[in-house]
Amino acid sequence: MNEEILINSTPNETRVALVENGVLQEVFMERNRNGSIVGNIYIGRIEKILPGLQAAFVNIGMSRSAFMHVTDICSQKKIARIDGIDDEVISEQNNFQPISKIIHEGQRVVVQVYKDAIGSKGARVTCKLSVPSRFLVLLPNEPDVNTLSIRITEEAERQRLVELLEKINSNSEHGIIARTNAEDCNEEDLLRDYKFLQKLWRVVSQRIKDGQFKQLVYHEFDLPVRVVRDFISDKVRTIKTDSQEVYAKLSKFIGDYVPEWQGQLIHYQEVRPIFDYHNIDDEINRALKQFVPLKSGGNLIIDQNEAMTTIDVNTGKFIGFKNQEETIFRTNLEAVQMIARQIRLRNLGGIIIADFIDMEEEEHKQQVLESLEEYLSKDPTRTHIHGITKLGLVEVTRKRTTESLQHMLSEQCKNCYGLGLVKTVETVCYELFREIIRTVRQFKTGQIMVLASTQLIEYIYKEQTESLSELEEELGKRISLQAESSYSQEQFDVVLM
Questions:
Q1: d(Cα 266, Cα 258) in Å, to the nearest integer?
Q2: pTM exceeding the 0.85 threshold for the entire prediction
Q3: How does pLDDT run across 407-444, given as a tens digit for each residue?
Q4: Which of 62, 142, 311, 349 is the most exposed place for a label (fewest CB within 10 A)?
Q5: How big is the CA angle at 263 (ends 134 and 154), to the nearest 5 degrees?
């Protein structure tokens, strides 16, 4: 597989695209006014405790307080002691003591952001701190943890890495997790990563000790370095950036931490914008649309809302097989690959419901489900499939840490009030007639002027001329029409003359 990382950087915005075999798979985006704070560690203060929710609001210096649940506190005994929490009230089971017995308002607490503020909700934070590097993740004050990413599946490799972790992390007060990138990694590289994390945590620990309320004590790498750290591998052939500053940062980072990488780091300097040259902008624009065509003639309809995202699979124009069941099965199989790609590309999170076309044969249902699991397993964000229902619905949950592509790039339609629909011109016409009647009955006037959209005026002249004449006769008033190009289809004004 040939992978490529493309980076477009401007003073106001940074965008990173992951491309596999010429196909866009994922887009990361940060804007200076609302960059991601996931991974940052702050010294916060408990602002308010919510006993009914077993949660608390934490002030970390943002415009909105962060949210923290009791499960984000209780497993961190040593951190808890630092912040004055009594171990005796912390249960090792799920039956936690009331949160008000564990923490109190006004208390200093060290927290890490694991989910950005989304919509009207503030950021989510935890006391379970972690500091990542290329191959490892350090878990401060968790000495009993030496584990691996679940994506490393080969048993022999898992055993080898466990032994290496126990060797390099023996007698330490911190835990360690081997990331997916650690697969086939040698001891020397792991040890170098481990020493870097130990040194980094000593610096962060001192900042925590000396720091003040609302202070940022650890800042994640900026977006380009973070993506390169997490995704660089032998499969990545090229990394291109149109920024000299980003190029210099990445050159230093790769030289310091990934000197064995055999790919090319390229400073893109062509006149044509880098995302335009690779058709990334066109792909992003298509990812904002509900309708997704399939090569066979079928299609997906993706509807994203606050509660969940629904994906409807349709055969469309596809009638290519000799029986209906086979046609449906083939359409569903093709849809699976596109669904997995769209979930990752659009950064869909939370609850996702895929409505496949109903299949009669159990074997076909199982194949579709297994195929979806296979494609979603390539997604680095944690995703879980909850099976297929009798109605052919597949329930998927995907960890949400940042805004989806749609929420980041779009806003609610001011003309349809976020419904995504507009009233038909016929409906608006009848509303206009009712408004004219209401106005004439309420006010004394000699003549009525209607200001409305071009579509509405044309419809009245073509389809409702007789109705307009009858209305004039009934009211005894002259009604004149004037088209306004700036008006939306649903907009009109009735002016008294």
A1: 16
A2: no
A3: 888 777 666 666 667 788 888 998 899 889 888 888 87
A4: 62
A5: 50
